[in-house]
Specification:
The complex is a heterodimer.
Chain A (H helix, E strand, L loop, with lengths): L8 E5 L4 E6 L7 E8 L6 E6 L4 E2 L4 E4 L5 E6 L8 E9 L14 E6 L1
Parallel strand pairs in A: 1-9
Antiparallel strand pairs in A: 2-7, 3-4, 3-8, 5-6, 6-7, 8-9
Chain B lengths: L3 E4 L2 E4 L5 E7 L5 E7 L5 E8 L5 E2 L10 E5 L2 E6 L8 E8 L5 E3 L3 E5 L1
Classes of the chains: A mainly beta, B mainly beta.
Chain lengths: ~110, ~110
């Protein structure tokens, strides 16, 4: 079973920041938080991942709470092309007992013009 | 990022037949995964395929139905055997790297009549 909880859907105005929450209250110390998105009819696209520090790349920022029980993915300036299903996944790092990604139901982000 | 290609991109098959899906990666990877995405659903992991060992199947998936080959570090195949309309799905190949990133192919859209 997926170990994360996400809202089923969210709306965001174009040009504004999109903040997507994720709860992972049972996360273990060696598990990373990963974010992927899937645009309609395409394979999932990697966005970002982190262990306990906040992370930023060219696509997004990942904010992980100090207790690591929740996180937020931030798309700083959402565009219509960011409309997709966003998946938050926890997984052990390389070399762990299992490296598989288990997908939950995700959040459908609809960016409105 | 790893570049992953899948063949065929889509197919329409008759029930009772089998289809073999190919996954090619542009670099050597240890871990490869096969996922299924049924219409309107999230991704479900079928099996993990590591080179030099038997594939490891998730609960609900068996080798007789979904045989997998992994002859080298850049290639894998998934066969969907004795197909029925319930096997109509998108099948996705995925690879994991030691830097903890995981990438997905574009998927194979299968329709079984």
């Amino acid at each position: 079973d997926a170990k994360t909880t996400q809202p089923p859907s969210m709306d965001c105005a174009e040009g504004r920041a999109a903040n997507l929450p994720c709860n992972h209250s049972t996360i273990s110390g060696n598990e990373y938080v990963y974010w992927y998105r899937q645009i309609h009819s395409q394979g999932p696209q990697y966005i970002i991942h982190g262990l306990k520090n906040n992370e930023t790349n060219e696509m997004a920022s990942l904010i992980i709470t100090e207790d690591r029980k929740s996180s937020t993915l931030i798309l700083p300036h959402a565009t219509l092309r960011d409309t997709a299903v966003y998946y938050c996944i926890v997984r052990v790092g390389w070399g762990g007992a299992t490296n598989k990604l288990i997908f939950g139901t995700g959040t459908l982000l609809a960016v409105q013009p | 990022s790893a570049v992953i290609s899948q063949k065929p991109s889509r197919d329409i098959c008759q029930r009772g037949t089998s289809l073999t899906i190919q996954c090619q990666v542009d670099s050597q990877v240890t871990m490869m995964f096969w996922y299924r995405q049924q219409p309107g659903q999230s991704l479900t992991l079928i099996a993990t395929a590591n080179q030099g060992s038997e594939a490891t199947y998730e609960s609900g998936f068996v080798i007789d139905k979904f045989p997998i080959s992994r002859p080298n570090l850049t290639f894998s195949t998934l066969t969907v055997s004795n197909m029925s309309p319930e096997d109509s799905s998108i099948y996705l190949c995925s690879v994991a790297r030691q830097d903890n990133e995981q990438f997905f192919g574009p998927g194979t859209r299968l329709t079984v009549l």
